[in-house]
Fold this sequence. Notes:
Layout: E1 4-8, H1 11-21, E2 25-29, E3 35-36, E4 44-45, E5 51-52, E6 55-56, H2 61-72, E7 76-79, H3 85-97, H4 115-123, H5 130-157, H6 166-184, E8 189-198, E9 203-211, E10 214-215, H7 221-231, E11 236-248, H8 256-267, H9 271-283, E12 285-286, E13 292-293, H10 308-322, H11 357-360, H12 366-382, E14 387-398, E15 401-412, E16 442-454, H13 463-473, H14 481-490, E17 494-497, E18 500-503, H15 505-517, H16 519-522, H17 524-538, H18 544-565, E19 575-579, E20 586-592, E21 595-600, E22 609-611, E23 614-619, E24 627-632, E25 638-642, E26 651-652, E27 656-657, E28 668-673, E29 676-681, E30 687-689
Parallel strand pairs: 1-2, 1-7
Antiparallel strand pairs: 3-6, 4-5, 8-9, 8-16, 9-10, 9-15, 11-14, 11-16, 12-13, 14-15, 17-18, 19-20, 20-21, 21-22, 23-24, 24-25, 25-26, 27-28, 28-29, 29-30
Helix pairs in contact: 3-5, 5-17, 5-18, 6-14, 6-15, 8-12, 8-13, 9-12, 9-14
Amino acid sequence: MADSLVIVESPTKAKTIGKYLGSKFIVKASMGHVRDLPKSQIGVEIENNFNPKYITIRGKGSVLKELKDACKKVKRVYLAADPDREGEAIAWHLAHALDLKEDESCRVVFNEITKQAVKDAFKTPRQINMDLVHAQQARRILDRLVGYKISPLLWKKVKKGLSAGRVQSVSVKMILDRENEIEAFIPEEYWSITAQLGTGKSAFDARFHSLDGVKKELANEDEVKAVLAAVGKHDFVVDEVKEKERLRHPSAPFTTSSLQQEAARKLNFRAAKTMSVAQQLYEGVELGKEGTVGLITYMRTDSTRISPTAQEESREYINDKYGANFVPETPRQYSKKAANAQDAHEAIRPTSIMRDPEQMKPFLSRDQFRLYKLIWERFVASQMTSAVLDTMTIDLKAGTVTFRANGSKVRFHGFMKVYVEGNDDGADEGDKLLPPLAIGDKLKQESIEPKQHFTQPPPRFTEARLVKTLEELGIGRPSTYAPTIETIQKRGYVAIEEKKFVPTELGELVIQQMEQFFPEILDVEFTAHMEEDLDHVEEGQQEWAKVLAEFYESFEKRLLVAEEEMKEVEIEDEVSDEICEKCGRHFVYKMGRFGKFLACSGFPDCRNTKPIVKDTGVGCPKCNEGKLVERRSKRGRIFYGCDRYPECDNVMWDKPSAKPCPACSSLMVEKRSKQGTKLQCTQCEHNEEVQEPDDE
């Protein structure tokens, strides 16, 4: 008969650790939090030192009853929620609900769900860490005060259903500020000149660098003509050759934010999806005869630290798999990425490097496999030697004009054998070879091409870029990024266009009101400072109620002013030319989480909606009657289909091209990759490069 009860958050986690602990332990799931602040009221006694009034979450009564009954049948209860502030708070709420003694050593934590880690954790149970609980409680109450005090004002003055929050409001403002920068941007003209030079065996490109020994930027066509005149019919002669060795170092193993960024770049995962799939890998996957095993360490972390045991295992694996020259002399150590990093847990890594992705593939879903492969490769690469690149710079003179060519070659791949970090513009480092040349060599000018460019505005935020910026500014914490991004879309404050965030009219209006009456909520430094205060609470250096009191003193004054002075704003819907086929009224434009759509102006009497159709200008090749138009799936993904649907069910993910295949006259579609865009025929093997618009 079991003599101990272990409570975790999820059934999957319960199943995994239950197999490790054996028959003396009953393992049950609380299904997350069992107590929280009430939804119907603020639930905080502000005048009573911000005392929270917790209630049992609706639907959790039966769960608590089951846990209480199980407690009566055992001698000891262990609380094994996740090893972070949230997990500590869940454990504390459970201890209260189950009447466990405050001084009881009932808390068990493990950073990875493996047999050894779990068994070791149960050898050293501890008391609940109240500093962690207070830090989580302070954040929860702080967000409740902001949300439940400002939101009713926005409902009253702007529109029902709106909300405000510390991190979400700053995020929307950042997206709005970026949009304003883009709109205010004035492009500046500049030019480049590229010469294609041949050696007889090969050709390479060199770009204009300087005139009369002075580096020069070409601002207009007249300056270009002057340079071309100076080049004239002069030969291109090698003036200087510089060769040197450069080391490229591996990236650190993943933190929560860097995992979200890289999964967005390489896997096209939303932040919420990344965290959901990572949770599955952490809690455990059935591996046939081996049973259920947690494949990665805890996925909510801001640390790049690695345990000595994992490092040693990785060094042995790398030596056996790739050779001794791929193993650095000493294990790689990575410093904290940010000054405010908590470093409470290790970086995200495989629980065993021996479980390589291909071996795990039969046991994983497609998404699980892709994310696990990303985590595994990043960790292995982080423990390997640096790559060695040979770089070459050649200056060539044509009269008084200097052109420069740069090339590089990977001499030793090192960590690049396994993994190379992505970046937001999608370019990976590769070989750009130059022929062996010596000073005085003459080259044939095969072509010389001037090209006009215009400076580009700063880019809109992608999800990866937004997460990176929030982390750099110290706003929010690893666990807050995914829900923040989900919230600002759900509220209609931002939309996504071509995988980039665009502020909506509603988002702009809310931020205007917030800027006028609650500027500190939108202040990046204020928000980052608040995060530091919460960290100090966690470290036991600051009292949680005092942090709240200092915030609320000025916040309360601003609330009173806003109540009196905030004016009511009516958002007028933009009326379209289209008529609702159900009731005859005009459609109006509405903004949803995936952009604009059409809704009947007769709402709520008429609830007819339809997407805004973008014509691609390409006829449907299946029915030869309709046109291919751009549509969106329920998840917001763009696809293309016949406008005669459902009469014609022709659909495709790739964008159709108006250019027919020159080989067979069939439809061609755009295929995008990091190397560029190609047109691929849908019927034969013909493909061709697409000239991308210049965005330098």
